[in-house]
Fold:
Amino acid sequence: MPGIEALAERLSTYLGPEQVNLVRRAYFYAEQAHDGQRRRSGEPYVTHPLAVASILADMHMDHQSLMAAMLHDVIEDTGIAKEALCQQFGETVAELVDGVSKLTQMNFETKAEAQAENFQKMAMAMARDIRVILVKLADRLHNMRTLEVLSGEKRRRIAKETLEIYAPIANRLGMHTVRVEFEDLGFKAMHPMRSSLIHRAVKSARGNRKEIVAKIEHSLANCLAADGIEGEVSGRQKHLYGIYKKMRGKRRAFTEIMDVYAFRIIVDKVDTCYRVLGAVHNLYKPLPGRFKDYIAIPKANGYQSLHTTLFGMHGVPIEIQIRTREMEEMANNGIAAHWLYKSNEHDQPNSHARARQWVKGILELQQRAGNSLEFIESVKIDLFPDEVYVFTPKGRIMELPKGSTAVDFAYAVHTDVGNSCIACRINRRLAPLSEPLQSGSTVEIVSAPGARPNPAWLNFVVTGKARTHIRHALKQQRRSESISLGERLLNKVLTGFDSSLERIPQERIQAILSEYRLELTEDLLEDIGLGNRMAYVVARRLLSAEGEPLPAPEGPLAIRGTEGLVLSYAKCCTPIPGDPIVGHLSAGKGMVVHLENCRNISEIRHNPEKCVQLSWAKDIPGEFNVELRVELEHQRGLIALLASSVNAADGNIEKISMDERDGRISVVQLVVSVHDRVHLARVIKKLRTLTGVVRITRMRT
Ligand code: MN
Structure:
């Protein structure tokens, strides 16, 4: 067998003879298990696991990963049980194979829900042993390299999945080389025409550019030599899919992208990187704002390098990356560099620790997320890292995805900081919480004890962590508020019959709970508060076992204005304290307060199962908007006059609009915020003192 022996020889350069033999044994086991099976290309099936192992050998992966690679399709395709592998090759290898098989069974093309669940499984498998994903990536890489033999539809499905799931994962793990190959092969399979067009264009452009490239390279090398710096200068080529994405995303023309000349300078140590930077900035003028120091602040996947852009001769832009040999290897292989350049066990490279942290973070998200769709939403954002770097007031660096706001920052600092945040200072200036953060800013969070997350934050936060925690906090808040409203609603009905929740025997409550299939009394109260169950109906069940009808309860329930998320004011009639009101319980939304004579509820107003009589408690906090229609004679400075009268009565204008009805009379619509009816009366009275006022009406519906 030349295949396995050639591999064994390569392995013996970094593995012991015993380990090489174990890999060999796994190969023969796989060969026998897949006996008779063929790949679509006609070759014996075992050539595939052998190729996968060979990819992993290029990364210098350990013998267990290589054995798992040999056996990776055995459980899935030959029906050999995991236990059998465990006996033959030990638990670790069997677990790896099992993990890879589970990933193989995933079908990401199904509905979003299924996709999300798959992703969770993937994260779990990775968390148990990160080598699972490396074997899987190698498997996928070989399948992508041999994609041509598949039918068009299947080929596109696999290519799409590779671009959407596996390429971002490789990127997240810092495996640049694998990612680029995934992207170029995926691009070719998805868009064969576009791919070959760009390929041809790149080839001809390269021919034209040869001379300039050589010139720049020469002058860079000379510049290093003049400063006595040893370094390796090489031209960089962008990969096809990268060019395509730039053309689409940034809507740039092909020539514009190709007009940039890219070079890489590789040196011996970190120190030298900065010396090189100085030297090239001396040679050509740097483009302001383009310098990035990823050495001091590495990217989330462990990438380190200095980036700068220079104005070359005749103003040609030159992009330069400066890094050490070690950083170069990390940039190409990411987490795999851990095995490739392992010096000693305790000294794990950055990217390995970061990859672990990422997987750990994913699992935490999963535990918080209410459902798998919320989860996948969070993970997707994490898979496309475009970071901004900001500082805490104490100078700590925080890394956040692009577009993150102060709220994302607050949650990244600590969940409690996020939950109690009320305002922020960006570079010492008060700024809106929704403002996207810029790299280099210092962000300070102003928090207040007892403050709560605002549902509106969900409209602008970017990180999965912030989103999940806000939702979680809102759910908690909503639950406790629903319980307390539910308790008040239920007790109100019960007191009408000389009873109360406390006086109902526990067994009776338990009986009702099990009848409703609920666990806790709180669950029942929550249901009532949310409007899913009617207090009147529940009270009847609690009071009389036979369910004989009770008369409708008397006396209104007082609204305090502190009910929170489960109580809202109807937009159709905008009630304010002092107005006669009723509460309409709508399922899942809780209580909506309407004016007693609002037309929208006229049909159900007297139905005790749907509506509750309400009154206002004393001193309701907050401001309420009402709309006023003022008809008055047209005059100069009319808006100013209206504004100052509303102001004089302590009211506040939220909105104003005016149309002229005829030459003489103007109609002004005002939205004014007031405390209650008495306050509104004061505002109206003040408005009436204006000269020329014909009529003032409060608008409803
Ligand atoms: Mn396979």
